Amino acid sequence: FSRGEGEAVTNEIENVTDVRQLKREHQKLRSPEILAVKGLAQFERFPAVMALGNLIENWHISDFHISRARPEQEAGYAEHLSREGENLSLVIQYLHQRHPEVFQKILAKLSERIPGITKVDAKTTEEGRVLLRFQDGAFEDPFLARYVSDGTIKMLAYLVLLYDPTPHPLLCVEEPENQLYPMLLWELAEEFRAYAERGGQVFVSTHSPDFLNAVEIDEVYWLVKEEGYTSIKRARDNKQLAAFISEGDQMGYLWKDGLFEGAG
Question: Quick one: 67 exposed, middle or buried, by C-beta within 10 A (0-12, 13-18, 19+)?
Answer without folding.
Answer: exposed
